[in-house]
């Protein structure tokens, strides 16, 4: 996107997002390894929900096409994507991350990881989403296109 005049914002917090995810998986591994890798008896249900979450994530990624990346990069004047899950909510990929940070530790009964990293992830996403939405409002038609969508709760696009 930078080849098309893309502008990156939020560089200063990107390293912290990477560290958060590394810490999450290290914590999950340590917590489960020290407890003999327990798994919930109802793991098939959690696994099915995780598969649905992954479907939503990849639907979001493919809907964004060449605009998807892990950084916050905008092409000034570009139109906001409002197809796929973006018809129903503003941040389906972040919703998927929130659910993963809860469901994966739950699956392995890693309750310390679940609580600690769900809170850290919420704090990080609150900041990141504010930065991202400010950039979207500045560089794109985000305010007018997404005004009828909530951030995470799916909404019928036909409802007003």
TrEMBL record:
Main location group: membrane
Membrane topology category: Multi-pass membrane protein
For the keyword Metal-binding, the answer is: no
- GO CC term (a single one): membrane
Subcellular localization is given as: Membrane
Q: Which UniProt keywords apply?
A: Membrane, Transmembrane, Transmembrane helix
Per the record, the domain of life is Bacteria
Query: What are the protein's GO molecular function terms?
Result: protein C-terminal S-isoprenylcysteine carboxyl O-methyltransferase activity
Segments passing through the bilayer:
13-30, 42-61, 94-120
A Pfam family reported for this protein in Swiss-Prot or TrEMBL: ICMT
Stored PANTHER family: BLL3993 PROTEIN
What's the protein here called? Answer: Isoprenylcysteine carboxyl methyltransferase
Q: Which organism is it from?
A: Aneurinibacillus aneurinilyticus
């Amino acid at each position: 996107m930078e080849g098309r005049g893309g502008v990156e914002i939020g560089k200063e917090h990107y390293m912290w997002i990477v560290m958060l995810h590394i810490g999450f998986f290290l914590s999950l591994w340590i917590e489960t390894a020290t407890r003999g890798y327990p798994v919930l008896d109802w793991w098939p249900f959690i696994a099915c929900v995780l598969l649905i979450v992954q479907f939503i994530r990849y639907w979001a990624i493919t809907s964004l096409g060449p605009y998807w990346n892990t950084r916050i990069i905008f092409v000034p004047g570009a139109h906001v994507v409002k197809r796929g899950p973006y018809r129903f909510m503003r941040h389906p990929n972040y919703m998927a991350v929130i659910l993963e940070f809860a469901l994966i530790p739950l699956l392995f009964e890693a309750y310390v990881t679940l609580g600690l990293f769900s809170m850290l992830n919420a704090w990080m996403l609150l900041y990141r989403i504010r930065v991202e939405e400010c950039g979207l409002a500045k560089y794109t038609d985000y305010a007018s296109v997404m005004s009828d969508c909530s951030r995470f709760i799916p909404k019928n696009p036909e409802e007003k």
